[in-house]
């Protein structure tokens, strides 16, 4: 492979499985089962890769394209954390001698006019996260994860509904949705399962049920795309990570990952009386 036949090819894979192939070559390329398009430019600063566990440092930039990396999808967060792979290859024979020079994920994505920029995070990035258990009276697991073992699709802990009234992608109201008690979904999740906002989710801040059976749910932050009337959503119960909640609300105390009998800070600093 000579310098005159070298091209770069990117594959970007979203969490929902959608794959986009981009190249800085002026013609389409096909490699590794992916079609790489030249009309959706994407470039990167020089890849900096350390020999030890240092974090790879680079930045990708490109032009928003309606059918590839679109502005609405970026705003909605659909590309957050997407897997990125970058190859150097011979555009005359893409499958011969291709070299993988970067693998990681998209970090923070910013937009300037019609351009986007995204930090590239290398495979060593997760090693910088805190490891080990937290000793705390409340549970350290996330509802529905491998430690909690709650099935979030269980009808006892959530329900499916159709959007009736949506305000600013953050406040949702149903005229009659009283299957669960007041505040049942606080700290839970509203997950969109249909329409243009499918795949997006938000954490529930408030869940209020009035005497008529109407339910009003408010999210902490607006969804990246506005759900429409009739779109399918799922409401998932909230957990405050307390032992009584785990036992009474979810009947899951055997999997509780907190330490409810730890002495409080007041007990630790209280003066001792000598006998």
UniProtKB/TrEMBL annotation:
Residues 183-265 form the Bacteriophage phiJL001 Gp84 C-terminal domain. InterPro entries: Phage_phiJL001_Gp84, Phage_phiJL001_Gp84_C. It holds the Pfam family Phage_BR0599. This is DUF2163 domain-containing protein. It comes from Paracoccus pacificus.
């Amino acid at each position: 492979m000579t310098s005159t036949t070298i091209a770069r090819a990117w594959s970007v894979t979203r969490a929902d499985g959608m794959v986009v192939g981009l190249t800085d070559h002026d013609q389409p390329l096909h490699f590794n089962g992916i079609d790489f398009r030249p009309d959706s430019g994407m470039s990167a600063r020089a890849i900096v890769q350390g020999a030890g566990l240092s974090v790879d440092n680079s930045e990708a930039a490109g032009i928003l394209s309606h059918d590839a990396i679109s502005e609405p999808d970026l705003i909605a967060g659909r590309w957050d954390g997407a897997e990125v792979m970058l190859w150097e290859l011979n555009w005359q024979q893409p499958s011969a001698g291709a070299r993988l020079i970067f693998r990681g994920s998209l970090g923070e994505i910013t937009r300037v006019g019609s351009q986007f920029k995204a930090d590239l995070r290398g495979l060593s990035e997760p090693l910088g996260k805190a490891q080990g258990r937290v000793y705390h009276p409340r549970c350290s697991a996330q509802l529905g994860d491998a430690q909690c073992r709650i099935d979030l699709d269980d009808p006892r802990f959530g329900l499916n509904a159709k959007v009736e009234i949506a305000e600013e992608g953050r406040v949702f109201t149903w005229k009659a949705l009283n299957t669960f008690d007041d505040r049942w979904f606080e700290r839970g999740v509203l997950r969109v399962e249909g329409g243009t906002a499918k795949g997006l989710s938000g954490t529930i801040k408030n869940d209020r049920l009035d005497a008529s059976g109407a339910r009003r749910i408010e999210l902490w932050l607006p969804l990246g795309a506005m759900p429409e009337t009739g779109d399918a959503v799922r409401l998932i119960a909230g957990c405050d990570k307390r032992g009584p909640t785990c036992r009474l609300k979810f009947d899951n105390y055997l999997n509780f990952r907190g330490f409810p009998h730890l002495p409080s800070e007041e007990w630790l600093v209280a003066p001792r009386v000598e006998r």
